[in-house]
């Protein structure tokens, strides 16, 4: 059996999951809604589901300034209707006053990606334990997010893209199975392949990150702060290896 043959065609086939996802958004967002669009494969499917549903929707991309430039180009070329939302303070500017982001303190996600609108998101439970526990309709801090493709498997995502002849970023063909911010505490050296691929493909982004961290480190030392690591280089190595590396000494 090939991986693209559904086990239960009546519920697993591309036709069946498409119908189900379209009904889900029609039932839950009949009056129109914003779609958080990342330019990745899951977002591409979600945008198509919205189009098929006939519901009024708008695509919004949260620009971080630390994403692959290819993604922004892809969105501009293939989704010109997508609004690219640029934050008031960029990641680099915020890094001059914050501690470096970490797995426990993801201030950049909050600052650059979160908004207060209800929205449809293309998250999938396969992508990690946090997402696996998310409900399909999530109410959080006065905001509701809807996840029409939450239970789709990766093969279904790719089959849906192929069946609908949708464009997708060619970075996937180069081995990037997930696309997002280039310097991110989520993909450290510990997580392996992705970090190595990112460093090889976009070394300039890592160089800038290391430069900014060194400046921030020196600034804090001059303010008589007690740092957890002896040098910015030692911190950076720890950050690349361990999502929870500390900045200040306890
Ligand atoms: S770098 Fe990582 S934690 Fe920060 S905004 Fe990007 S995805 Fe979120």
Automatic annotation (TrEMBL):
Q: Which Gene3D superfamilies match?
A: HUPs
Q: Which GO terms describe its molecular function?
A: catalytic activity
Supply the Pfam families for this chain. PAPS_reduct
SUPFAM superfamilies, from UniProt? Adenine nucleotide alpha hydrolases-like
- Indicate the segments forming the Phosphoadenosine phosphosulphate reductase domain, all copies: 35-185
Spell out the protein name for this chain: Phosphoadenosine phosphosulphate reductase domain-containing protein
Q: What is the lineage of its organism?
A: unclassified sequences, metagenomes, ecological metagenomes
